[in-house]
Amino acid sequence: MKILLDTHTALWFVNEYEKLSPKAKNILLNDTNQFYISVVSVREVAIKVSIGKMSELIGGAKTFLNKIEETPINIISISSNHAAEVESLPFIHNDPFDRLLIATAKSEVMTILTADENIHKYDVDWMW
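Structure (tokenized):
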């Protein structure tokens, strides 16, 4: 299964494993799954660190990327199809990062691994 990690899921996976649900832990430990993180999540981390909303992440986005490189998670770029898909999404969620993650998952036929209940309201496959 192709799994797109929401930003918080990736952060918890590389930093605070205990915050993951038991089901999410099992999914992440299953090596038959293919794991992805969008470059939009890296951008989100960089922005939040720079404005002081993620001060607990010492080293910021570079440290986050280094930790991701130590895992089986692949980084996926934002394509024009992903950006265009955002337009067709209902306006349930105001977060532009999450809207782009939803669009990416829909475009790439991925399941989003997320605890975000707003994402659960979209017509996209998700697990937690």
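The mean pLDDT is 93. Residues 2-127 form a domain with the Rossmann fold fold (CATH 3.40.50.1010).
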